Amino acid sequence: MPKYYDFMICGYYLYFTSHCIIEAMHVHASDRHLTEAGSAKLFVKSNGETEVKEQGRLTDKELRIIREFIKTNYKEMYLKWSSMSKEGFYQG
User: What is the mean pLDDT of residues 17-42?
Assistant: First the structure.
């Protein structure tokens, strides 16, 4: 599972799986176990805004902080995503 970063944001890793690269760019936020159970899933738009598909166990505050982090770093994150996927940003 490729992580966007080796560090955690609000206690969650931001990652994607090799199985999900057939979808538009998105981010899973999960604890150290990196399982999709209880994880959040956010689709990323070309302006860095996100659409929450699943909130998982994240609190509203954690989700807000992660969304802000993605908004600030989405271009760098897209480089990692696009190295494994031909799918682009989420179109809505």
Answer: 85
